[in-house]
Every structure is written in C-alpha cells, then in structure tokens.
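User: Can you predict the 3D structure for this chain?
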Amino acid sequence: MTIDKQDRLSEHFTLAELCKTNTRIENVPNEAQVKNLKRLCGWLEKLRARVNPLPTSPRGGEVPIIINSGYRSPAVNKAVGGVATSNHLTGCAVDIRVLGMEQLLHYAVILLDISDESQEDFDELLIERNARGSYWLHFAVRPEGNRRKIRLIAC
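Assistant: Here is the predicted structure, written as structure tokens:
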C-alpha cells in the first residue's frame, strides 16, 4: 500500500494526514490499521461538523480539525517516545492540535456528547502536553473493548 495525499479516509481527512511524521521513518499502515483510521475519522467528521458554524454564520470560515499524530509504525512510535501499548500503533488514536485550553475543552465536551448521543464508547479522551507547555487532545476509538478512559488534567 502506498500513501497518497489523495487517498481519503473520510470527506475531510486523508490517509497521508493521519500518517504524517517528522521522523523520516517509513510509516505505512496495513489494511486493518486503515480500517481503524476510517472508524476514527467518522468521529472526527462529527466533531468537525459541530465545531463549524453554518455556512451563513457571521463567524466566517470553517475551522479545520488538525491532526498532529495519527497512525504510528512501531519504529515511529519508539522514535517519538510513545508507549509500547499506544493506540496509535493500531490506527485507533489521534492527537488533535488545539489553539488553547478553551478549544481543547470544547472539543472534549463535543466528543463526550457524541459518545453519549450515539451510545458508542471511545477508548481514550486525554488532555496531554509536552515539556514546552503545548497542549493537545488525544482521542482513541478501538473496534472493541473501549474503556472510556478520560483524563482532563494534563500530567
């Protein structure tokens, strides 16, 4: 399988976008991992739809959901310091870039609402941050065995 920026996982998300890495290490998912990424993109599409105003809204243009990290091969995961049990390894997790704590909490609440309304569980909804103080929202959905693990305080 080759990663082509034109390969779409959903209306607004590409395979390349969910496999990008700055490590220069090959990062190509298999069929099962692509299937997991597509399931995850279903949630991302619902998040995107709720974040964006109606086309006639005075707020203006659309707000994209920007993915910092999606699928990670074992080599990429090791290079970025990911844990050996990371949902990123199976294509079940994304790290979503946010512009600040307000946007991060807004996204988290929307994803919780989507879960409650659809009665579908997710595996992880975590606020994370790096040593520089940058925050992001980690969100994961497994095919089964979702734990609904929530951590809204960055460690």
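The chain is about 30% helix and 15% strand. The CA atoms of residues 52 and 63 lie 6 Å apart.
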